[in-house]
Every structure is written in C-alpha cells, then in structure tokens.
Amino acid sequence: MEAVLAGFGLGLSLILAIGGQNAFVLRQGVRREHVFAVVLTCALSDAILITAGVAGFGALAKAMPGLEVGMRYGGAAFLIWYGALALISAWRDGKVMAAANGTGSLRMALLTCLALTWLNPHVYLDTVVLLGSISAQYDDRLGFALGAIAASFIFFFSLGFGARALTSLFAKPAAWRWLDAGVGCVMWVIAVKLLMD
Fold first, then answer.
1. Positions of E strands within the chain
2. Most Cβ neighbours (<10 Å): which of 131, 136, 145, 197?
3. 158, 81 in Cβ contact below 8 A?
C-alpha cells in the first residue's frame, strides 16, 4: 500500500502543475466540449507513459544500482527547478485561463489534446524519467505505477467534469497564484524527501 500511495501522491503532484494540457482540459470542461473524449485521451496517454517508465527505467535501475542514485539526484534537481518555476509563476500574478474560443470538432479537440500531451518534453521527464526512476525505490513497482495511473485518471476526470463549477473561481488571478504556490511547495517537499532517503 505504501508504494501505491507514494505513486498516487507523486503522480498527482506532478500533474497538478497548470501547463498547456491542463489549461486545455480546463477550457474544454468550462465550455462542455468533448470533455469525456479529451480527459480519457489524457489519462490513457499518461497510463502508457507511466507504464513505460516504471517497466523500463525501474528494471534498468535494478540492473545498474548506480543509476538509481544518479536518477534520484537528477529527479530532485528537476523537482527543485519545477517547483521554482511554479513559485515564480505564483509571484508573477499566476496564470489566467482564457476560456475564449473552443476547438470545434471532436477530431480537432483530440488532435489538440494529443499534441499538447505527446509533444511536450516535460511529460517525458515527469512520467517516464522521474516516475520511472523513483519507482525503482519500491519492491512493488506495479503498485507504484497503479497509484500514479489512478492519480492521472482521477485528476483529469475531476478537472474536465468539475471545470464548470470552477468557472468563477479561476476567472480570478489569485486562484491561479495559490495553485501555483501550492504546487511549488509540494515539488520542493518531494525533492527534499528524495535527497534525504
């Protein structure tokens, strides 16, 4: 259960950072356009990437013990950098989601979603490299992966279908500020934990 909870917590904290993909899902949810297809595409994409990371990097880290240490420090450095970006964003007025024009057709919505997911270099750092390397610390790598995948499904479905209720809240820059500040702090706490283990 420890591995499942660790995977869930880390997966959720990594995915919380509002970037292009999450802003797109939020916008689709606010506009109620192709929400199910978009959130399912995001969650399945994450599941594929997380599985690849845990299976590949986890096995490789077990075969090469020095790699796990290097990946841990690299992961901690990445989390510190990522957290700093979120905190800087919070300090500089946060990010305001503009629910302007929709994407129109289901095909365009899915193509946009796939591009924002698979063409984003951070998604590989988060899911394949970071989650894959951290999973090597656990004997139950499958549990770790399932926890991270569950976090992805819960997050995307909650964001997409809960977006309508958040319309008035995220019209205010202060809400984005608080979200970015929270994400930054969580990233730094995880980085410290990685360095202390």
1. none
2. 131
3. no
